[in-house]
Amino acid sequence: MIDLVKKYLIELQQSICSEVELIEGGAKFAQDSWTRDDKRGSGLTNILSNGNIFEKGGINYSIITGDKMPKSATALRPELEGRKYTALGVSLVLHPENPFIPTAHANVRFFIAEEQGKNPIWWFGGGFDLTPCYGFEEDAVHWHQTAKKACMPFGEDVYPKYKKWCDDYFYLGHRDEQRGIGGLFFDDFNSGSFDECFDFMKSVGNHFSEAYLPIIRKRMGTPYNESEKDFQLYRRGRYVEFNLIHDRGTLFGLQSGGRTESILMSLPPTVKWSYQFKTKPNSEEEKLTSYFLKPRDWVSLK
Amino acid sequence: MIDLVKKYLIELQQSICSEVELIEGGAKFAQDSWTRDDKRGSGLTNILSNGNIFEKGGINYSIITGDKMPKSATALRPELEGRKYTALGVSLVLHPENPFIPTAHANVRFFIAEEQGKNPIWWFGGGFDLTPCYGFEEDAVHWHQTAKKACMPFGEDVYPKYKKWCDDYFYLGHRDEQRGIGGLFFDDFNSGSFDECFDFMKSVGNHFSEAYLPIIRKRMGTPYNESEKDFQLYRRGRYVEFNLIHDRGTLFGLQSGGRTESILMSLPPTVKWSYQFKTKPNSEEEKLTSYFLKPRDWVSLK
């Protein structure tokens, strides 16, 4: 099982990197292959810095093993306590230079927790979600339509379920704000055979580019001024707050002795915090939080 | 008890603000007085932005009450569970423009947890700690000497105990780095009478300016270039990581429904994250992590 998933993940990483480089038209990912000192983890971190389109982008493949599931993973699933595990996944975050292009995040992962004399417990997780600074309805509709398309072969109820989970997950309680306009989020997914579950994960992984690339192409030519850039830097603060305070994936990684630099590649390149930043009434900046960052049934809008 | 502490805290806030404004020579704190909608908290947040010396500084007084101690406070002290509480304190963070001036943090606070028919449980907490980007031994020695001076009237063992607690507390596990060069940190402090404990808290609060102001004056004229500024922005990332991942005070504030903007005023104004930032061997930048950010007996260095 691990080998099959690994093969797919490495191909997925490669294919998304190629597509991003194509749209960049020059800038290339730097590849950093690493192995943990204790040999319990390795990975390939691909980083793009100061590109034409992306100020910073990271597309990371990693596989880690451990003797004992970490706390953040067993809190809700005590049956996993004490099991050794292998976790592998591809995780990507792309922070555009242009504030009119949204930041994208995607992740697909496979877990297997084993204990001698017992059946292994395995599951898939993943999803993708979009974080605009300036919202566009048509982009949100396209993003969610593509998310729905990825889910449809697996049942009518799949998209609504994982769309809602995404909204629930990417929520900043201390701000009472969504991180972005959502997408898909699933975890602990093991209903049906391994092949069926794996197919679903692949469908999510394979639809990421179709969801994101058209939005980049549509927005990359939009001119922006300093105050719009500033708004982006300010909004990136929320991204940092979510990832460091709330994100289970980040906490799992740091707790399990993951590779800090690869985990925190998700953080934006430049960020600003200012006390009580205020948006003008009825501005595009205000519309972001008052309209776009509320859970919404985007696919029905079209 | 609450009234006595409140009076002191408001005076302390005022006095530190005046001293900072004096050194700023122009820029003033903006005062933002706030009350929570549910009336269970109020405060005065003083913010200085884009000053001559400080890119951002916040000196916050707040008092909050609650029906039930939040999780982060009762994890280690189950006897507090279910009690109503009042917490008040002054908290400050000063982020200088010049990378040769260290960032300073100080906090003094008083908690009282009450339950009908039982004796109230009260305690003090606080401390101050320093986070340089470029280290100077003489500054570290002065800072710790002043910390020791604040503690000496209360016993020989007080400074070493709270100096160590500070080193233990301001530690980023995922980076295996101290946040800074430390100082003092104490919590759950209630040994002796209320007056004695209160005197200790006041001594810590009153020594902050004596510890910090001479360092500002010594470093504020040092010229710096873009790469030194960049190093500061990069190091500020660690500050954010600590505050959002590890800091119990921040988590307590956010969990107890505190005022997010006042709590997160501690975050630096501008921050950069870059993948695997590398310092040159034997540079001042490398010396920061290899020498200064290790727990060290600074007072014995002089």
3D structure, described in words:
By secondary structure, chain A is α+β, with helices and mostly antiparallel strands. Helix content of chain A is 40%, strand content 26%. The first copy, chain A, contains 9 helices and 10 strands. In chain A, the strands form 2 sheets. In chain A, strands 1-2-3-4-5-6-9 form a 7-stranded antiparallel sheet. In chain A, strands 7-8 form a two-stranded antiparallel sheet. In chain A, a hairpin with a 5-residue loop joins β1 and β2 (41-49). The longest helix of chain A is centred in the C-terminal third of the chain and has 26 residues, at 194-219. Chain A is globular, with a radius of gyration of 19 Å. The mean pLDDT of chain A is 94. At the A-B interface, β2, α6, α8 and β10 of A face β2, α6, α8 and β10 of B.
Any descriptors?
homodimer, 302 residues, alpha+beta, seven-stranded antiparallel β-sheet, 9 helices
Fold blueprint:
Two copies of one chain form a homodimer.
Chain A (H helix, E strand, L loop, with lengths): L1 H23 L5 E6 L5 E9 L4 E13 L4 H4 L9 E13 L6 E12 L6 E11 L5 H15 L6 H12 L1 E2 L4 E2 L3 E8 L4 H26 L6 H21 L1 H8 L4 H4 L6 E3 L11 H9 L10
Antiparallel strand pairs in A: 1-2, 2-3, 3-4, 4-5, 5-6, 6-9, 7-8
Helix pairs in contact in A: 1-5, 3-4, 3-5, 6-7
